[in-house]
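Let's practice the habit of predicting before peeking. Look at the sequence and jot down your guess about where helices and strands might fall. Then scroll down.
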Amino acid sequence: MLAENKASELQRKQLQKPAPGVPRCKSAAPARSNQREIVTRTRAFEPFAPRTLRIGELQHALEDIVLATDAASVRVEGLGGYELGPVIGSGTFGKVRLATHKASNQVVAIKSYERSRARDAHQWKRIQYEARVMERLDHPCIIRLFEAIEDPSTLHLVMEHVPSDVTSLCEYVKQQRRLIEADAGPLFAQVLSALVYMHDRHWVHRDVKLENVLLDKHGLVKLVDFGFSALQTAKPFQTFCGTPCYMAPEIVLRKSYWGPPVDVWSLGILLYAMLAGFFPFRARNYNDLYRKILRGVYEMPSMLSADAQELLRGMLDADPTKRLTIMDVRAHPWVRRFASPLQRPPAPLYRQISLGTLPPVLYRELRTSVLDAIAALGLSRLDAEATLREKRHNSLSTLYYLLLKRAESLCYARETPPLVHPRPVASQEECHSLASRHVLIESLQESDNCEKDTNDLDRTMSLAPGSPPECDEQLAHDDDMRDVLAILKQTELHRR
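Done guessing? Here is the structure:
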């Protein structure tokens, strides 16, 4: 949820009602009681059946879709182009609901923000900023934004739907009590891959947590909630933001800070919670929680391997200058242990097209076929080509990708026997590891177009041409965090 009061969110989910004036964190359960509940259980994700598609199959499927589609539904723009379904989540500013794209009959998730719930114009500007961030992110482990629809009272973000028995990594860890390293490693590597991608492009998330990692039925992750995300420039951040249990010491201290080390700290908290089943810093109220974070002292679970313990110590170093960088984390032996090629579900074709990982010949063939379908539905082919070329997120681009998604689904539903099994996938340590798992089509040769960005995250970052301006640091709200000043005063007195 975007830029909402994280402290209030934790209070709503607490198990016990706190005394008046004493906020309580969801990590408040004592360590001993948490450890008693640790049970190692493995939940197998749904297997997938690898198969091969012929280009002719997809073309015939697109023709069938055009014949079955009501041309009137294609010309409807805005929220009228969707049939709204049940609410699957709610937050401070609005709701998330399932919806069906009428023209393609594909299920999406729509996150709706109500302007009336925003505190002021600055907060509404922050909400709008999330859409601009998502438009610039395209990675298989990051949720895909199709389009943003805004009217005077509401902003709707139309995103891909992630079908699963569990809504998030948080729910999955709760079900399992804790994850063994063999199960946690591949999930962690995917979240890490998304952050490496963001940092290479100078974006920082600033709210990495279990709840913000969706998990699909095959065990693939999607990083969500970019309400606190920002472009890291040569100027450090000042905003006090994030979720208390995941906050880095430099944020608690209200010092200026750099975004990448903050994400590494939160990622360390996430990994600790996955492996241990509880948080490293636990307290009955926020005052005590912040004190513990500032001291940086926590218990290391003895059941973890030496490599896992070393990685956690490096990520949870209270000094951001000594903390591991995101590239150090990716190169760590524990992470590399889970970077071997694995047989994973191939990325959907519409994602492979947007990511640019398909062979050029195949890309041109599919692009032409989908554009032909759009023209057959009575829409402008030139407008569609311009939309794709300029990477806009509107009704035309949404139709383009969802038509291909539906065509692929129809081909699978027809249960055509597979021709060839896909080759083993690329290494998970590559940014576009999941996207490189191509669906083979006829005898076209696959090409490896995975991006391998090796930018040094320690260098001074400058604003990239064409990028949006850095977000207003005053837009993130910190109304319920006033007790930090009292903690700092007590810390200074203690040092004296």
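How did you do? The CA atoms of residues 200 and 455 lie 6 Å apart.
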